[in-house]
Amino acid sequence: MNFLTLLQASSGQSGSGWMSIAMIVLIFVVMYFFMIRPQQKKQKELNQFRASLKKGDKIVTVGGIYGVVSEVRDDKLVVEIDSNVKILVDKSAVVKDMADTQR
Per-residue pLDDT tens for 24-72? Predict the structure, then answer.
């Protein structure tokens, strides 16, 4: 009789252990889909945008500098920020396309 009681008690405990593990896994899955995956998608889109930059694109940099791309190099851009004022900017510093706004 005591043996059956011990089996029932231990089976209840192992179910609780599996439930705890399932909850931890569920928390990681939710974190992945709500935090990690959207960030990876956003970073991928930003990398594609930077790779597709061409002469004449209106951009804004991380530092808030607005300008027009006048030359594209491997990993750098020459950006015209005013008439006859050009600066050399790393591609990773470009964050937005401002083609739809007025300069």
Answer: 999 999 999 899 999 999 999 999 999 999 999 999 999 999 999 999 9
Q: What is the DSSP letter of 57?
A: -
List of residues 6+ apart from 46 with CB closer than 8 A: 95
Concatenating the DSSP letter of every residue in 13-25 gives: HHHHHHHHHHHHH
Which DSSP category does 66 fall into?
Answer: E
How do residues 7-33 score in pLDDT, each as one tens digit?
455 555 556 788 889 899 999 999 998
- Give me 62's structure tokens: 């991380």
58 forms beta bridges with 68
Token pair listed for 66? 């607005």
